[in-house]
Amino acid sequence: MSLSPVEGVALAEIESDPDATMPAAKGVVGRSPGQLAWMRLRRDRTAVVSGVLLVFFLLLGLAAPLIEMAYGIGPREQFQNLLDGFGMPLGYAGGVTGDHWFGLEPNLGRDIFIRLIYGLRTSLFIAFAAALITATIGVVLGALAGYLGGWLDAVINWITDLTLAMPFLIIALALTPTITLRFYGERGQVSSAFGVGVLIAVFAIFGWTSTARLVRGQVIALREREFVEAARASGAGLGHMLFRQLLPNIWAPILVSFSLAVPQFITSEAALSFIGVGLSDETPSFGRMIYDSLDFLQTDPAYVFFPGITIFALVFAFNLFGDALRDALDPKSSR
Amino acid sequence: MSRFLIKRLFSATLTLFAVSVLTFLMFFALPRDPVSSICSKNCNPERLERVRDDLGLNDPLISQYAGYMKGIVTGRDLGSAQGGRCDAPCLGWSYVTNEAVSDTIARVLPVTLSIVIPAAILWLLLGVGLGMVSALRRGTWLDRLAIGFSLTGASLQLYFVGAVLLLVFVYNLRLLPVPSYTSLFDNPAKWASGLVLAWVALAFLFSAIYARLSRAQMLETLSEDFVRTARAKGLAKPTVYGRHALRAAITPVVTIAGLDVGGALGGTVITETTFGIQGLGRTAVDAVRSGDLPTIMATVLIAAVFVVLANVLVDLLYAAIDPRVRLR
């Protein structure tokens, strides 16, 4: 599992291309594990396709205001004149036209396409921020627990168990309005940035356990190796041991777990807004859109499909890419 | 073995205790005053104060907590405003629904059990079966189909699948009634037809994860020496795969299954919301919305009990399935 630099070079020598697709024109070339992984990733068709798709989604999210300008419709604009007397969009498939690519929301008459673009932006931002924070917490706590052992290990393990025993959705549901009200009081106008911040905080509290477990296991496996002993013997401090000696050897599984955590947070964010916490209606969100669309399943079935399929495609691309990344970083594992 | 069990149960109790304290503190910080929802408009300060006294909200936090825990173990007298005597698993009195919380739980817990248990059986059979078959038929079209299925299922969202199922089977084909809960003992046919969509939706998504996991595990086991030895000494394929390999491959699946089932029993919030069924999860959500502290406490505690028990059970099952795991 571990890709220490020495093993990496050895791998480059031994693993003389099992696919045998390339002509055998090689002397002994030293390649870093990173270069090796990158080569494998580039050769993997699934990785390339899902990677391109991900970049596309990221660009869509980043460029949301630009797309709004080009598209000419904002996420809060209402088009009541295109709805019939019952608040249902006129025309086919929920009012799909050249102006409104994905149709309109029933009742409010907002444009679904631009709301999806902004929903993508929110969703990706929350997921990446939450994944970064949980990975950091998890790596630090896991490495400390694994390296130091003893009572610290026991305490961190127990906190992990405790966190896993709490029903996440219910706690998050109760915690989010509590935090918001503590900061804003009964009547304060909650800014959407604050709502996003609270969501990320809730994810950070609950999401770090799996990374911590993973890192702890890896560190324990490395703890008794000679290079660790050597560094300790030459008087390395705790920080140096953790971040200079141990961490570089386990970045591969951490990277994989990070890439698979992002879609999980996308899903969780949508699930939370589906049960009605987190973001206010002002901020477009996938989960919220699907929840709203359930009332119109019979009258406007197209409404559920646009957000449903978008979030599927997003999570699917992330999952495929995460798997491909794991294959590239750790070709021995069979999943 | 018994020493391990005692140790395990002790740490489980400690975890539950911590969960109860944390929830108690957390929901005490809920800004909504439980009293204001009881007498909403014409409530003078004196009356408010009296209700608060009745509820014991003026007592120090510790004695409130102690009273609550005592109620669970021995039962306690809640006073006439809260339905008088409250028997042994006393979870308090909800002013929002005006009934004892234990009655609410007794009503909604069977709903969640009826959703989760059949769904879990379905997803385990389907998931593990599919994973085994695709590992044994590695590289065939069947394997590729199973991989595609599990990749798709792992990326789909329950509420979306649920919505599509509702749309197709309830609203368009009209094959099934709108999902609802009827007691199994009153009318088994109606029980099944009202919940089958929830089972299918849950089983579809979960079995995807299990198919993937058990395929990977089975592939790893099949390449081990003891499988080759068993084949070489002339054991029939079904015996080797079905008894020797399956047993070794299934242990990680058991871990995940225990956690998943335990978690799901604590309330399938999303499923219940999608299909409009009032189970434990939905009750918890409603309680949080209305600031119904006793009900929130009860639902969180029950959910935690399920997770912790599942954890202990998994450890025991481990030893039963895999003799290499000797409990210390």
Secondary structure blueprint with pairings:
The complex is a heterodimer of chains A (335) and B (328).
Chain A: H1 5-14, H2 33-43, H3 45-62, H4 64-71, H5 112-148, H6 150-165, H7 168-184, H8 192-207, H9 209-223, H10 226-233, H11 238-246, H12 251-274, H13 286-294, H14 302-329
Helix pairs in contact in A: 2-14, 3-5, 3-14, 4-5, 5-6, 5-8, 5-9, 5-12, 5-14, 7-8, 12-13, 12-14, 13-14
Chain B: H1 2-28, H2 34-38, H3 45-55, H4 61-74, E1 76-77, E2 85-86, E3 93-94, E4 99-100, H5 101-136, H6 141-155, H7 158-172, H8 188-222, H9 225-232, H10 237-249, H11 251-265, H12 269-275, H13 280-290, H14 293-321
Antiparallel strand pairs in B: 1-2, 3-4
Helix pairs in contact in B: 1-14, 5-6, 5-8, 5-11, 5-14, 6-8, 7-8, 7-12, 8-10, 9-10, 11-14, 12-13, 13-14
Number of helices of chain A: 14
Give me the CATH fold name of chain A.
Answer: MetI-like fold
Q: Count of DSSP helices of chain B?
A: 14
Radius of gyration of chain A: 24 Å
What does the average pLDDT of chain B come to? 80
Distance between the termini of chain B: 7 Å
The overall strand count of chain B is: 4
Given this structure, which CATH class of chain A is correct? Mainly Alpha
Strand content of chain A: under 5%
Query: What would you call the shape of chain A?
Result: globular
Question: How helix-rich are the residues of chain A, as a percent range?
Answer: 55-70%
**CATH architectural category of chain A:** Orthogonal Bundle
Describe this protein's structure:
- The complex is a heterodimer of chains A (335) and B (328).
- Chain A has 335 residues and is mainly α.
- The longest helix of chain A is centred in the middle third of the chain and has 37 residues, at 112-148.
- Chain A has helices spanning 5-14, 33-43, 45-62, 64-71, 112-148, 150-165, 168-184, 192-207, 209-223, 226-233, 238-246, 251-274, 286-294, 302-329.
- Chain A is built from 14 helices and no strands.
- The model of chain A is unreliable at 1-24 (pLDDT under 50).
- Chain A has a single domain (40-334), classed as MetI-like fold, CATH 1.10.3720.10.
- In chain A, helix 2 (33-43) crosses helix 14 (302-329), helix 5 (112-148) runs parallel beside helix 14 and helix 13 (286-294) runs antiparallel to helix 14 (302-329).
- Chain B has 328 residues and is an all-alpha fold.
- Helix content of chain B is 73%, strand content 2%.
- Chain B contains 14 helices and 4 strands.
- Chain B has helices spanning 2-28, 34-38, 45-55, 61-74, 101-136, 141-155, 158-172, 188-222, 225-232, 237-249, 251-265, 269-275, 280-290, 293-321; strands spanning 76-77, 85-86, 93-94, 99-100.
- A two-stranded antiparallel ribbon of chain B has the order 1-2. A two-stranded antiparallel ribbon of chain B has the order 3-4.
- In chain B, strand 3 (93-94) and strand 4 (99-100) form a beta hairpin.
- The radius of gyration of chain B is 24 Å and the shape is globular.
- The mean pLDDT of chain B is 80.
- The chains are: A mainly alpha (335), B mainly alpha (328).
- The interface between A and B is large, with 43 and 50 residues.
